[in-house]
Amino acid sequence: MNSIVLVGCRAEPLGSYLTGLGLWRAVVRLLDSDAKAHWSAGQMVLTTRFADVDELTARLAETFEPLPIVSPWNAGSGFAGNGRSRSAEDTLNRIRVSTDGRLAAVRHAVAAADRVVTEGRDAGLAGKGAEMWAKKRKADVVMLARNMLPDDALVWVDSTVVLGQDDEPAYNRLLGTGGNFGRQDLSATYLERAVALVDRPDLTRLRAALTGDESVRYSRDAVGQFDPGRAGGVQSSPWEKSDDRGFVNPWSFVLGLEGAVLFAAAVVRRYGAQSVNAAVPFVVAASTAGSPDAAAGEQARGEIWTPMWERPARLAEVEQLLSEGRAEWRGTAARTGLDFVRAISSLGVDRGLSSFTRHVVVDRLGQNPLAVPVDRVSVEHRPEVRLLGDLDTWLSGLRGRNLPAAVASELRVLDAAVYAVSSGQDRRGLQRVLMALGSLHDVVARSGRIREVVRPLVLRRPHEWLAALDGGSREVRLAAALASGRDGGKQPGPALRELLTPIRIERGVVRWSDRPTLVPSGVDVATMLAMAHRRRARPGVVPEPGAAADNDGATRDGDVQPAVRGVFSAFRHGSWAPLEDVAAVAMGSIDHRLFGDLLRGFMLADWRRGERADWPKAEWHPIPSALALLLPFYAVHPLRIHQDGDEQERDILLRPGTRWITQLLSGHTAQVAAVLDDARRRLVIAGIERLVRPAADVDGPELAAALLVPTSSSARRRALHAVADLPQPRTENQDLEGAEV
Question: Are 214 and 239 in contact (CB under 8 A)?
Fold first, then answer.
């Protein structure tokens, strides 16, 4: 056995792929029943007894016998005999009078199709006027053809059209509408070209089809959907209309159609009495995601995902694969291109497959359907893809509806991000999915019409999303910490999601709310968080927690009263952000847009279950002295300190002034200075006298936003030690920014 690399039979375009399958099928059918095939570097490799491509070409051209492909149910097939399809009728007449043994199977099929037409008309199935068949009787014609055509002709019937439970015809998108691509009848084109090749084998063109030689002279004729690159016509000047004929190698078309019928058995076996929809494996409804060259308003008819395998296989194995192939997403058959790519990445496809090429069938060049190759996806387990299934139920409420333009646009962005993650194009694309999801949810929340049909989304596994993201990103850590912030008790304060989006949360249930949002649109993320913090910092909005346990897990005996009364606004529970990250917020040295987009996504999650995030050591960042001075006041529980002269540590409870956040939000230097002076006064009352004097030339809203970020008690103790003359804790002190001693 010899391995012959068929350079001309490539994974794309679709016509080239089908030519490879068709060549292999023809070789097994006519020459070498033991021939095997596989794909290597996107090219078909044929394992056969023939020495090389020249011997293979000579033998195939000499013995080639066309398949009995007839479509008596189509008006353009030539069987109408009304002179409207002159070339098809001439080809059928040539077959009827031929005595060539290689056309025997075709002659028998044509004779049987003639009887189908005669009996169909006698039974009253004919249409009115020039119509070959009555539109409502197409199913009867197909059934008649199935009953009367010879067995070897049924493979074409089963490839193109089947009858469902209510006897409505259903079509295989791979072969158009019942074997029609627009005005091109595939059976008529096949027979015309196949008969010509039987008369004149044309070795040069056959060899070119197998080797990819583009120097041969092509025929000018209709191409069909399989090879869109050859479908364009010639235009010699800008003022001359181009013709609609393409450049055709007849061998490529004939072999390509033989390859296409390998998808036939699936239609019969997968269509049961329970289904009327085309259930051809690897043929699904179109998705706009992952198709960057799609034109605006372009009509996509479907997608064809062609499989490749790297181990030499027998034809019977691949016939079974193409007839019963598995592409499952979350336990059900993939229905769209987006489902299909996720099935590939979750190993919901048959074993032994190495990759798939995605072809989207679109209407171009007028109304001609063309299969455009857009991507190749390797079969590879991508664990993060399973999280995407959490979105399907909510998104199904949006799909198939007449969406507002803003919602439809954001949905396309989300689908593109999901596709990029699932196809492996973007290894860190889960972050983009989360951001796109938050943006989509925002526009849905502003659409009263869409809010009537979908509830607010709640992500149930945020900690798994967080684990799949890049934990080293400062913006990820900050967004997760803020979004996860929550209160305990029977009367919790408002969660950040309630403050920033039109929802309300009652006993853990999230519902839409008609009250105006707290934050006007268009503000930056720091101002947005500062305004949310101002709302939580109003007296009585967030109940003061009872003394129980320190955030670091140390228990406290008895209640510790605040040194000076104030307001409580900190979140009691949530993931902690490192002190260095909080400092970056206060200094404005974060990517605000990224931070805001991530926050919108993370706020959709239910953070009540799961472990607190274990972040890696944060990158170094100077700690602003103004932040270090104020941060201890936003601790949930008392801070344990030790001063010179004290025999043991003692607990102090610090609470901020009721107007601090409002003053910081104003942004005025005098107001910021007043807050810092009040903080120093409160610390002195608490017994801490030797303090640095921070500069007031800081951004007030950014400082107010930073003070809302949940941090650990140990981080707040570090901050206190950074501004107070206290014995140093075990953690090394950080440099201060803007301190005046």
Answer: no
Place of tokens 């390797």: 378
Q: Is the dihedral of CA 228, 418, 457, 527 positive or negative?
A: negative
Q: What is the pTM of this model?
A: 0.85
Say yes or no to pLDDT of 735 above 90: no
pLDDT of residue 611: 62
pLDDT in tens, 609-645: 766 666 767 777 788 999 999 999 998 889 888 776 6
Within 10 A of 687 (CB to CB), how many other CB atoms are there? 12
Task: For residues 411 and 445, give the distance between their C-alpha atoms in angstroms, rounded to a whole number.
Answer: 14
Q: Tell me the two tokens of residue 98.
A: 């031929």
Could you tell me which of 649, 634, 664 has the C-alpha nearest to residue 727? 649
| pLDDT, tens digit (0-9, with 9 covering 90-100), for 526-580 | 999 999 999 999 998 988 876 444 444 444 445 788 888 999 999 988 889 999 9
* 267-287: pLDDT as tens digits: 444 444 344 444 678 888 888
Q: What is the mean pLDDT of residues 232-240?
A: 47
Q: What is the token pair recorded at 304?
A: 């064809």
Buried b (16+ CB within 10 A) or exposed e, 425-446: ebeebbbbbbbbbbbbbbbbbb
Residue 471's alpha-carbon distances to 384, 598, 617, 707, in angstroms, are 14, 13, 10, 22
> Which alpha helices (DSSP H) does 364-445 contain, by range?
392-396, 405-422, 429-445
Q: Give bridge partners of residue 624 from the DSSP assignment.
A: 737
Spans of all domains in the chain: 75-194, 386-454, 535-591+610-740
Q: E-strand spans in 669-730?
A: 693-694
Contact 450, 407 (CB under 8 A): yes
Residue type, 55: E
Residue 590 per-residue DSSP state: S
Residues 6+ apart with CB under 8 A from 520: none
Q: Please name the residues in contact with 125: beta carbons below 8 A apart, sequence gap of 6 or more.
A: 133, 134, 137, 140, 141, 144
Contact between 23 and 265 (Cβ < 8 Å)? no
Instruction: Round to whole Å and give the CA distance between 95 and 106.
Output: 7
CB 717 within 8 A of CB 641: yes
Q: Which helix (H) or strand (E) holds 672?
A: helix 669-685
Paired tokens of 379:
């079969």
Q: Are 155 and 266 in contact (CB under 8 A)?
A: no
Q: Which of 364-368, 473-477, 522-526 has the highest mean pLDDT?
A: 473-477
Provide φ and ψ at 267, rounded to 5°. -65, -40
**Beta carbons of 304 and 340 less than 8 angstroms apart:** no
Quick one: pLDDT at residue 84? 81
For residues 178 and 93, give the distance between their C-alpha atoms in angstroms, rounded to a whole number.
23
Residue 466 in tokens: 């967080």
Distance from the first to the final alpha carbon of the chain: 87
- The total number of residues shown for the chain amounts to 741
